[in-house]
């Protein structure tokens, strides 16, 4: 297996891994340079009108809207990308994603159902900070700077709570009819988790090729710096919006 055929296979694997890396980077850059209001925690005008007009229980439409939100929620995906970056076992990935989903689901449901009002700009700035935090964690910054390693499981759960509040602040703007509110919210949340699984599956497939390349460790630093930069961009955008709106 050390002859020409092995060399061809190695080069092919390297090309696939580079293609996967480029696809990931291009996707996140495209999202990062798109108007953040168009994607993060957003609902399109058509969906907004639908939500405001209907009454009663509509499980399938709300599940669809939840899945659509997660697939286009690049701030969620950036954070999850950072969370799973150095996780290789499905057991570990499942644990961390479940912690994030628990936090996200809890505050999304309670925030809307109990009508808890929080500044959308400030919450989204914290979500941007969660991306920065995870990128620095992946870079080993806390160990070098402070000599300690924060509990990554607790951090994932806590930031999941803020991500859920981010969505709740947007849903509250749509004045959903109280008739069927709870089942519709539960359906929406189910859709969010389905969308999360779909997006996560695509990310894992791309990363599986990248991780098998010899350059993964070398490029991991650059990828996390890029992720951290995107997080700072989100923070700056949201704080600017908050300052202008105040």
Shape: globular
How helix-rich are the residues, as a percent range?
over 70%
Number of helices: 10
Sheet with most strands: none
Number of domains: 1
- Proportion of β residues? under 5%
Please give a quick description of this structure.
With 246 residues, this protein is mainly α. It is 78% helix and 0% strand. The longest helix is centred in the last third of the chain and has 31 residues, at 181-211.
Description of the structure:
With 246 residues, the protein is an all-alpha fold. It has one domain. Helices cover 78% and strands 0% of the residues. It has ten helices and no strands. The chain has helices at 4-32, 45-53, 59-72, 74-83, 90-113, 120-138, 141-146, 152-171, 181-211, 216-245. α6 (120-138) runs antiparallel to α10 (216-245). The termini are far apart. The relative contact order is 0.19.
Feature tags:
single chain, mainly alpha, 10 helices
List the helices and strands and how they pair.
Layout: H1 4-32, H2 45-53, H3 59-72, H4 74-83, H5 90-113, H6 120-138, H7 141-146, H8 152-171, H9 181-211, H10 216-245
Helix pairs in contact: 1-9, 1-10, 3-9, 4-6, 5-8, 5-9, 6-8, 6-10
């Amino acid at each position: 297996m050390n002859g020409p055929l092995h060399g061809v296979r190695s080069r092919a694997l390297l090309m696939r891994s580079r293609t996967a890396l480029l696809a990931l980077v291009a996707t996140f850059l495209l999202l990062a340079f798109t108007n953040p209001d168009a994607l993060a925690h957003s609902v399109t005008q058509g969906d907004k009108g639908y939500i405001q007009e209907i009454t009663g229980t509509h499980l399938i439409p709300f599940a669809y809207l939840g899945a659509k939100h997660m697939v286009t929620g690049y701030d969620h995906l950036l954070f999850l990308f950072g969370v799973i970056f150095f996780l290789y076992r499905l057991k570990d990935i499942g644990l961390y994603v479940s912690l994030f989903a628990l936090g996200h689901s809890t505050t999304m449901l309670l925030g809307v159902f109990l009508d808890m009002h929080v500044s959308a700009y400030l919450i989204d700035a914290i979500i941007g900070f969660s991306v920065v935090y995870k990128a620095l964690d992946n870079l080993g910054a806390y160990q070098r700077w402070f000599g300690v390693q924060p509990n990554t499981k607790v951090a994932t759960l806590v930031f999941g709570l803020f991500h859920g509040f981010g969505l709740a602040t947007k849903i509250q703007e749509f004045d959903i009819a109280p008739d069927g509110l709870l089942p519709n919210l539960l359906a929406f949340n189910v859709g969010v988790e389905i969308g999360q699984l779909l997006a996560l599956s695509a990310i894992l497939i791309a990363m599986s090729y990248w991780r098998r390349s010899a350059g993964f460790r070398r490029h991991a630093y650059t990828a996390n710096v890029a992720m951290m930069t995107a997080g700072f961009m989100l923070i700056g955008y949201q704080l600017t919006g908050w300052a202008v709106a105040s």
